[in-house]
């Protein structure tokens, strides 16, 4: 018994109808998406525009104090100063407010000194000039920005956790209590006691010299603030749990002193016995 021609073509007809339906659905979805993209209102976004007057003032300050070493376009000058592209106003605040910049001469370590009077953060005018210079560098080079809060507001609520984070990330260079230490090639990790909360925070963001940068993915803002709380608790002298602090050289300071004095006494006694013999 043979099949009729209509019976043979029926499966192919069903397949065609299914494919046509899928194609029509796809065209309809594309049309709806295109119409939405064309006619939907754009979301309202608040984009903070840089202050043109502040940037202009920053450019004037830059041309007066920085352009010789860092170039007219922040590109840096060979054997004078590095590029400032990407350092952000965080690096500007740390380096200039701590007097490390401008440097008197090229050397292994930029030493902390009194800042230029026009950039002294203790004075309102100096703080305003720091903000202007940082705004100019930020607008033209980008990079990490200074925190929104200042002073004691940058101290976290958990100095205990800050101590743990400090020992994991900072103590290998700055010592357990932030008194600093020697590094290679004439460099050193400076003592943290003279640094303000803003300087410690911006140093973690910008990574000056041998110091690594700690982004907000590596150390969250709250963790940075807890570290600051710990550093200030030990540098202010309020975190000695008992005994002789020995200048804050670390948690085993008394043991080290006893060992040194004891060994010196034993050696002296042995030499005295030898002399008597």
Automatic annotation (TrEMBL):
<dbReference type="InterPro" id="IPR050597">
    <property type="entry name" value="Cytochrome_c_Oxidase_Subunit"/>
</dbReference>
<dbReference type="InterPro" id="IPR009056">
    <property type="entry name" value="Cyt_c-like_dom"/>
</dbReference>
<feature type="binding site" description="covalent">
    <location>
        <position position="69"/>
    </location>
    <ligand>
        <name>heme c 1</name>
    </ligand>
</feature>
<protein>
    <recommendedName>
        <fullName>Cytochrome bc1 complex cytochrome c subunit</fullName>
        <ecNumber>7.1.1.8</ecNumber>
    </recommendedName>
</protein>
<dbReference type="InterPro" id="IPR006311">
    <property type="entry name" value="TAT_signal"/>
</dbReference>
<keyword id="KW-0679">Respiratory chain</keyword>
<dbReference type="InterPro" id="IPR009152">
    <property type="entry name" value="bc1_cytC-su"/>
</dbReference>
<keyword id="KW-0472">Membrane</keyword>
<dbReference type="GO" id="GO:0008121">
    <property type="term" value="F:quinol-cytochrome-c reductase activity"/>
</dbReference>
<keyword id="KW-0249">Electron transport</keyword>
<keyword id="KW-0813">Transport</keyword>
<dbReference type="GO" id="GO:0005886">
    <property type="term" value="C:plasma membrane"/>
</dbReference>
<feature type="binding site" description="axial binding residue">
    <location>
        <position position="70"/>
    </location>
    <ligand>
        <name>heme c 1</name>
    </ligand>
</feature>
<keyword id="KW-1003">Cell membrane</keyword>
<feature type="binding site" description="covalent">
    <location>
        <position position="66"/>
    </location>
    <ligand>
        <name>heme c 1</name>
    </ligand>
</feature>
<dbReference type="InterPro" id="IPR036909">
    <property type="entry name" value="Cyt_c-like_dom_sf"/>
</dbReference>
<dbReference type="Pfam" id="PF00034">
    <property type="entry name" value="Cytochrom_C"/>
</dbReference>
<feature type="binding site" description="covalent">
    <location>
        <position position="173"/>
    </location>
    <ligand>
        <name>heme c 2</name>
    </ligand>
</feature>
<feature type="domain" description="Cytochrome c">
    <location>
        <begin position="53"/>
        <end position="235"/>
    </location>
</feature>
<feature type="binding site" description="axial binding residue">
    <location>
        <position position="174"/>
    </location>
    <ligand>
        <name>heme c 2</name>
    </ligand>
</feature>
<keyword id="KW-0408">Iron</keyword>
<feature type="binding site" description="covalent">
    <location>
        <position position="170"/>
    </location>
    <ligand>
        <name>heme c 2</name>
    </ligand>
</feature>
<dbReference type="GO" id="GO:0005506">
    <property type="term" value="F:iron ion binding"/>
</dbReference>
<comment type="subunit">
    <text>The cytochrome bc1 complex is composed of a cytochrome b (QcrB), the Rieske iron-sulfur protein (QcrA) and a diheme cytochrome c (QcrC) subunit.</text>
</comment>
<dbReference type="GO" id="GO:0020037">
    <property type="term" value="F:heme binding"/>
</dbReference>
<keyword id="KW-0812">Transmembrane</keyword>
<keyword id="KW-1133">Transmembrane helix</keyword>
<keyword id="KW-1278">Translocase</keyword>
<dbReference type="Pfam" id="PF13442">
    <property type="entry name" value="Cytochrome_CBB3"/>
</dbReference>
<keyword id="KW-0677">Repeat</keyword>
<keyword id="KW-0349">Heme</keyword>
<keyword id="KW-0479">Metal-binding</keyword>
<feature type="transmembrane region" description="Helical">
    <location>
        <begin position="256"/>
        <end position="275"/>
    </location>
</feature>
């Amino acid at each position: 018994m043979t099949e009729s021609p209509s019976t043979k073509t029926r499966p192919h007809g069903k397949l065609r109808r299914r494919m046509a339906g899928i194609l029509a659905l796809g065209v309809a979805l594309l049309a709806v998406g295109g119409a939405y993209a064309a006619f939907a209102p754009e979301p309202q976004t608040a984009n903070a525009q840089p202050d043109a007057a502040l940037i202009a003032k920053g450019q004037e300050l830059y041309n007066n104090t920085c352009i010789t070493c860092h170039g007219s376009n922040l590109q840096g000058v060979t054997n004078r100063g590095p590029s400032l592209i990407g350092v952000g106003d965080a690096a500007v605040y740390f380096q200039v407010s701590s007097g490390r910049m401008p440097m008197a001469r090229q050397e292994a370590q930029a030493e902390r000194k009194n800042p230029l009077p026009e950039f002294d953060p203790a004075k309102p005018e100096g703080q305003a000039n720091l903000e202007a210079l940082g705004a100019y560098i930020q607008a033209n080079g980008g990079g990490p920005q200074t925190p929104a809060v200042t002073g004691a507001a940058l101290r976290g609520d958990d100095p205990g956790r800050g101590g743990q984070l400090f020992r994991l990330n900072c103590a290998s260079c700055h010592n357990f209590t932030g008194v600093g230490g020697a590094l290679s090639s004439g460099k050193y990790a400076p003592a943290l006691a003279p640094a303000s909360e803003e300087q410690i925070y911006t140093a973690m963001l910008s990574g000056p010299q041998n110091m690594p940068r700690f982004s907000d993915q590596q150390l969250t803002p709250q963790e940075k603030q807890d570290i600051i709380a710990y550093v200030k608790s030990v540098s202010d002298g309020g975190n000695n749990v008992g005994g002789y602090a020995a200048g804050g050289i670390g948690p085993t300071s008394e043991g080290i002193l006893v060992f040194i004095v004891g060994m010196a006494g034993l050696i002296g006694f042995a030499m005295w016995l030898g002399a008597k013999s």
